[in-house]
Records
---
Amino acid sequence: MTAAEPFATPDGPDVLRVSGLHVGTGRDTLVEDVSFSVGPGERVGLIGESGSGKSLTALAIMGLLADELHASGDVRLRGVDHELLTAGEAERSALRGDTMSMVFQEPMTALNPLMRVERQIAEVLLIHGTRRERAAAAAAARDLLAAVDLPDPERIARRYPHQLSGGQRQRVMLAIALANGPELLICDEPTTALDVTVQAQMLRLIVDGVADRDAALLFISHDLAVVATVCDRVLVMYGGRIVEAGEVRQLLTRPQHPYTQGLLAASDLEAVDALGHLPTIEGSVPPGGRFPDGCVFRNRCPRGDERCTTWPGWTGTERSGYACWYPIGSAHG
Amino acid sequence: MLIQLLTRTATLLLSLAVASILIFAFMNVLPGDPAEVALGVGATPEQVAELQARYGTDRPLATQYLDWVAGLPQGDFGTSFVTGAAIGPQIVDRFLVTLWLVGAGMVIALVIAVPLGTFAAVRHRHPDGVLLAGVSQVGIAVPNFLAGILLIGLVSVQWQLLPSGGWVPPAQDPVEFARRLILPALSLGLVEGAVLARYVRSTVLNVLREDFLRTARSKGLRPYQALVRHGLRNAAIPVVTVLGLQLAVLLVGAVVVERVFVLPGLGSLLLDGVANRDLLLVQGVVMVLVLAVLVVNYLVDVLYTVLDPRLRAVA
């Protein structure tokens, strides 16, 4: 996707379409009315602070929410006839690891400590019948290890997770996620736990991995710089809602929502105030389910007034727009 | 791996040596010379000295100890002062009975605890899971001799299904052997199963919260498949630890259960020895019980390294 065509729709039907997604505990609402779509080959970033509902959105799509959480809405995957949230466990597990897969934030605990790496990769091939025999699956596992740039895949294959570094383990996770050539890859803060030096390699592997398979990518991060290098389009989440969406360069240079602007200002390491402090967003993210009614950002927003006690609604298209009564550049404030 | 094995083996042998010294010392600080006990109050000092010379109890304690210990590896536990019979063969015979009882009890306990504990963990938010956890709590409160008496009352007396006690060696009549083993093994195993079920439940609950189980589901495994393929082996590690420690509890339980079911096991031999003031016999039985507990815990240590690759030294 190029900056010259910021609103271009990708070819073909969307790989993932989420409409009106709600996630809650029954008492508290943690994700509210989230709608977006990801096209084939498209890389969409989902950014926001901790507690904004990014991971819950991803887990709801995957069907991996904790027992006490409930999701409602409409989630559809290209080539799948049924809606995902209401589908049975058998139908959903048939899609997981095959049509859609996920890389988690914490590589140190995401792999089974008692199983050799090779078997953990081979398993995902055997479950979905991509390989029928153990030996063939094991050989394919070693190829997958080589494909994520792990040196000496024969040796790594026979290792247990505790014998690998965090970066190596996350590559193993990526190898598992890409093994069956998914249509949709979800990465939840895949480099947050890694050293800065291995982050860039990991990001390149993710981007190459989805490009090779023409897969759609939903990339969750709180790091704007990472999202800017990886993604075409960005969704900004706050308080369980999407507050702004747009093509990456446009959104990073001309944010419409005060929260997006605050995030950008907080990421600007050049900007300091008179005391030499980096800019921050006033206040902190309320705990899950305790966001104000109306605009979820209004208690921290420099531009808010009584009008913000009602939810502003969405302005623009689903692919590019915002939810704010007083967007940046409007006369107010 | 080899070095760990050697270290553990050395630790086992050292523990055995220390245990043998302690057991010997405790038996010998007890008041009452075996010769005086055997001869009664009217004995003359000459008679006592003569008997002491015959038993060898007139020698220095260190010599007596070394003499006793040197015989142990060959199964020679000395000769009883009371009956004059060799102790070794008796202990071996009786130990086999206790081994069958404790072994069968452990198997019953595991067969109960693993599925029920896992079920209670998986269903911990549902009424049936909570009920099961409650039932196992009640099971823990039942002493195993009471379980034995209740089983006899119900199965042997009321329903007349199984004999209420006695022992038939497996080589003599395997069917009768099994019929007579079932009730005592159940009274040990049911109570132990309730104890273990709680450990299984809590370790499975911990494993259910692990990230790698979520990874397993993200690969396309259904929740119960993920638990069986990835969870249970991880949950087994803490359960094996408890299993080793619980063996000592089971041996103590066997002493009582053998009395209830009139089984000629190590427990009844120990109680007979105490009643007859047969110190050398008691000393031998206690040594064998300590040996059993130490060896099982040694095997548990070795089993760890088989179960958990993180405990194996990198070659």
---
Amino acid sequence: MCRAAGTYRGKPWKAGRWAWQHGRCFGDVDYIGLRNMDYPLIIATACGAIALYLMMPRGQGWLVKLGTLIGVLALASGLSYLTHWASVEYPAQHAAGPGIFFYAFALITLASAVGVVCHPKPLYSALYFVLMTLAIAGLFVLLMAEFIAVVLIIIYAGAILVTYVFVIMLASPSGVAAAAVDYDRISADPLIAVLVSFLLLGTVLETLFTHTPHGFIAASASGITAHAAHWGGLAALGKNLYSRYTLPLELAGVLMTISLVGAVVIARKNAPHTHMLGLGEMPAE
Amino acid sequence: MMMTHATSSFSDPVLVRYLALGAVLFAIGLVGFMARRNMIMIFLSTEIMFQGVAINLIAFSRYYHNADGQSFVIFLLTVAAAEASLALGLVVMLFRQRQTLNVDAWSDMQG
């Protein structure tokens, strides 16, 4: 029974939407699952993709501004979709949202992640990454993982990012770290990158929001032991690390040692054995 | 000891929000990984992807009241630190050879 949209009796400007909702455009058989898709979610994801595509470094400032505008639109539509989704899927728990702090930290995280990816100067990207790390540490505190939050700040913001900044300073061609060079100002294949990753993101979010049966996540927990009384805090984490994961923890230490030695060997300049390894020397200036 | 997940203050919709945030972070990092041409920026983008995964692990740890997720984040941080040290050593070495951080300068490296 494939009726044309024109036979819809009512307001004519709603005919298209009616036909879309009832799937009459494609006949009764929904071959590729178009009818079950969550279109507001898809639209929000696509808005985010367009925004990120426009914001990729291209050497044109007004595109970045347009991209920021579309990105704000994408965030707003995603937020409204989330509210709608929670009220439809979990009406009883709708009032118990994650709270304002989650949204604040999530906003800072996403904005600074986009800043990392899109800023043409690597030094500023590294600083955006520090900001993102701090916001994620805030999220971890909200998730009752205080120790991980502290460790994240110490290791990422304190150690890894300082190393990154050092290397950015060391390895800048002109010696001026803040000056953007050619390969930073113009990105390679932003269209393909955005298409691939937002196709992945759309699939993941679609599955997460529409195709997860209720209670599925909780039901799968039966195989996981919950330590309700002694959960949380540093004591439980340490006990878990040194009872269940003793061997992996020791192996992690071995891995750190190996990578330390490897980094020293690789980055060493004019070492006596680098000729044999083919690692080369610094060209004479 | 049985846990009743429904009565927990950390309910399903809250968990799903955290998972969505982790997925979005992963996608942003993937875009940077594929689109940037600076070697340092490529490694920085992988760190963003690491953070997205870490959010997922911590959120599930909170949801199930189980310390395994936090333990895995410890290992994840270890691997990230090892990767960063090795990768930055490599970047310094490669920069010494060609005086550029552009990955396209190394496209003749085949096989």
